Amino acid sequence: MPSEEGHYLYVQNSWIEKERQIVKFKLGKEPTSRELSDDYDKYRNGERFRLFYLFKFPERMVGRFDYDWKGEREKARANKVERREYAVAA
Length: 90
Hints:
By secondary structure, the protein is mainly α. The chain is built from four helices and no strands.
């Protein structure tokens, strides 16, 4: 969950505008609301944006993000691999 709703909405609106420009370029015309909605559903833009925000701004997130990176947590517990920290480029 984002800690600052205003920042999240600002970044989200920027994302939506970029997606609109992409659809406009693909169609060669200004997209209709229906065309934007179809593109949003087809490419799962909501999920993509949430993941983008999580990885781009981890310091602005609150709560716990506990994801199993292809079983690496279990391997680390079994001492088969070292524990790794995943850095996010700023």
